[in-house]
User: Fold this.
Amino acid sequence: MLNTSSFKRGEPMDRIVYDLCGRDERLRFSPYCWRVHLSMAHKGLAYRTEPWRFQQKEKIAFADHDKVPVLVDGDTVVTDSFEIMRYLDQTYPDAPLLGEGQSYQRALFFKLFVERSVSPALFRIVVMDLLEAIHPDDRDYFRETREANFKMRLEELHNPTQGREQLDKVLTPVNALLKESAFLDGEAPAGADYLLFGSFMWAHVVSREALFDEHQPISRWFEKMLAIHDGMAGQAPTVREV
Amino acid sequence: MLNTSSFKRGEPMDRIVYDLCGRDERLRFSPYCWRVHLSMAHKGLAYRTEPWRFQQKEKIAFADHDKVPVLVDGDTVVTDSFEIMRYLDQTYPDAPLLGEGQSYQRALFFKLFVERSVSPALFRIVVMDLLEAIHPDDRDYFRETREANFKMRLEELHNPTQGREQLDKVLTPVNALLKESAFLDGEAPAGADYLLFGSFMWAHVVSREALFDEHQPISRWFEKMLAIHDGMAGQAPTVREV
Assistant:
């Protein structure tokens, strides 16, 4: 496990991550923002977060982008979680997140695997809980955009039993890898771990639904991921407390 | 594209790959052996193949292993396709196949994705054609071992329509990556490409079944993979000719 607290660089106020929040400002559940939180900790970078809601487009208009995460690092503004991870590797090259060449390319595949295969299965499990966790002012926006994407009502998408079956199949190679390795990226967590963890943290913060059998390797991995970087994710408020 | 013919090292007779053959000795369809053929070409290594059938356990007993591929490289014997790829990287470090560290670890994930998610879908499409391509003496052995693995009769597993649906879903992140990149590993093919290609070559050699929509990025990628390394795979005899 990396001990990041001992080598934090810079002043926290130099760096800001604009971070999606829910009905309570302490509820932070964006899978893309969680990638960035753990990536910042991985690099030992101090920062503060700025809470943001779906409809607060003007608040991040300076970034010429309409979604979070947005990273402000001194004079630099970076949008898109994967681009932020790439920026962090370029700017702070110790402890690579994505790496370069084949390593980067395989991380890109893994990102697409998470977004196209894992997250849709999770969405079917937690969608109604997610709607409930979102700020009331954002719910119509969330419903309209997601129903347009999926071409389906949220109530039709919602099917935790089918979602779990789908998730179980999709995770077969992940569980096989975690039988052999402590983390996806080897003995210590790195980019691939954060890419996958973001999606599970999203589900974990908004929902009490079980995501996987506790005997599966991924269950132990998730517990470890909650504990790394001084328990950064494990200490985050969820709907269980807020 | 790598031009391997200009830098082949050593004499072909120094190196042997024991290679699964079918009812006709020219039919070579093992997905694991195809990984090795392309990996050898990637490293510019000349070699010869030794045809082998499932039941010829004594022929490879010297390797203390009962399956192919087996690589004999001078005095060294290596078994298991992924171990062979690793051995090639260690022994001939130019043009990495799997790489090291995160790169290796992500290739290991990709191997498991191919074996646990992609190949089972392909199996449902081509299983009866595969049985037909196997040497008659090997068919009972093949049926018994596979039916024990799947706990199902081969005739029940066989369902090309469902197999193609399953394959299409599983390949979603692969198609997304190949929209952005010429090869899985970037501008040139490497380990991840060979790992996936082996499984498609297996299906391609034994079966006339369509595997994917010709408009999908993976279809163009497969054509390119048949052409690389002087058309090594594209020139291999299939059930269309033999």
Q: What stands out?
A: Strands of chain B lie at 15-20, 48-52, 70-73, 76-79. The longest strand of chain B covers residues 15-20.
